[in-house]
Amino acid sequence: MIEFDTVGLRYGHGPEILRDLSFKIEPGSFHFLTGPSGSGKTSLLKLLLLSLKPSRGRVKMFGQDVTDLDQDSLLRMRRHIGIVFQEFRLLDHLTTYENVALPLRVLGRPESAYRANVTELLEWVGLGERMDALPALLSGGEKQRAAIARAVIGRPDILLADEPTGNVDPELSLRLVTLFAELNKMGTTIILATHELPLLDNFKYPRMVLRDGGLSFHG
Amino acid sequence: MAEFRLLRRSRATAIVPERSVAGRTLVLLVAIMTFLFGVTLGGVVLVQKSAIAWSSDVGREVTIQIRPMEGEVMESNLRTAVALALATPGVTAARALSLEESQGLLEPWLGSGVDFSAIAIPRLVVVEIDDPSEADIEKLERDLSAVAGATLDTHAAWRQQLNLMAGTIVVSGLLVLALIVVATVLAIIFATRGTMASNREIVDVLHFIGASNSFIAGEFQGRFLAIGFRGGMVGGIAAVLFFSAVGAAAGGVVPDEASAQLGFLFGRFSLGLDGILGIAAVVPVIAAVTAITSRLTVRRFLTQTS
Ligand SMILES: Nc1ncnc2c1ncn2[C@@H]1O[C@H](COP(=O)(O)OP(=O)(O)OP(=O)(O)O)[C@@H](O)[C@H]1O
Ligand SMILES: [Mg+2]
Predict the structure, then answer these.
(1) Residue A7 belongs to a domain
(2) Residue A112 lies in a domain
(3) Where is each ABC transporter domain found (chain A) (predicted)?
(4) Residue A190 near residue A180, CB atoms below 8 Å
(5) A165 falls within a domain
(6) Which of B279, B201, B216 is nearest to B39 (CA)?
(7) Maximum Cα interatomic distance, chain B, rounded to a whole number of Å
(8) Model's pTM, two decimal places?
């Protein structure tokens, strides 16, 4: 599903943030991605989202080399990838409902085709009563859940989540990761970046640990 | 409750927020450009039409001038000239101006107290032509060589000058039209780039969730098409009103006789239906220019920034 071959990444002429990453991620797997702040978790997720190109090495996704992919194919490939950003990136002028429905709307589907799905998902993440609220009026945890809902509404094959539990209490964190576990059971490949190590102990998923530009697998 | 919400959500919020587009400023700009375009176009049409009308009016009349010559009898020469003129194909009327009329023509130059009996003055025959293209003016000119002192004035030099002037105005007008279009395109490129930059976050998020460039371009283009259309309508209507107002003012302010002359000169400032239709056609053209320009600009922006 995902294959890295001696991938390196640097920003501009800066030092290499990621060095010689070579690994494979199987479809249907669940990985935690951990490492100290500034170790490059977000950068690695951006490589996986195809929003950054590696400075060297090769990245293969869905069996296809993405290094020289043209923009249109790249955008099409993104439809199979869901992303939860560390800073949510909800659109301020759209309601919670519209934000969550956006990935389906940009595919040109009529609203009647997805309205029920979106409503159901919002109920499921506990935002049923906040559907018409603008993001500015949502609490941190509510925004987090809206961002997660937007990432999964299109039933992506790969779900990337950057600190999806950064803004919520431990109880909700546990519920959210359980939600990801449910999605994983239905076949979604998941990579979840976090530095909340205590939370990880509740789950037996393998960990990818970033340190000093290198990546190691545990468990 | 849920049903109520579903009903209420019948119209989706635009993905590109209305306020983020330099909307009103751009509508005003497009309106001004359309107005200038319409007024210039109307002016060109007016000049062109007047020149054609004037030219053909002038062409419908030629004058035979007979200079007094030693040993010639003016009255008989006049009669010959009139007869020759009437014998020319296409001529409908020919009339010699009487001595008094001829003196009357000279009065403005010589004053009214002059005794004309002492000086011999040139005399005129006014020849009216039905259709200048069918009249055989050359035959008349040849025939007139038999009459001593007779010359034919077809106002050709006049008309040539008139056509040259009208042509110059029309060419300048077209140049101005082209410049207006270029300025509009540049302003729209500028505004579109500004809008894209201020909506960068939206563009990025749309890209991250897999929106195609044509989808994003469509969202922006829809906005700009609406702006172009609204601005175009305002400017076009203003231009038509402008011409009506000028026409009405020319009719009201200028005294009757002068107004008749002005009317002769400028066709009463009347654009006519075709002129108004021409200005109306400017509106969709400007709207299309706006939409196409912004689409291309958005496309370029999108391919450059991802
Ligand atoms: N756009 C950028 N330009 C230059 N340097 C950057 C850029 N983004 C990140 N970096 C640098 O790359 C390194 C890794 O950043 P990254 O955001 O990937 O870390 P992280 O593991 O996600 O950190 P955190 O846990 O705090 O979110 C940091 O040193 C950061 O300063
Ligand atoms: Mg990060």
Answers:
(1) no
(2) yes
(3) 2-219
(4) yes
(5) no
(6) B279
(7) 115
(8) 0.72
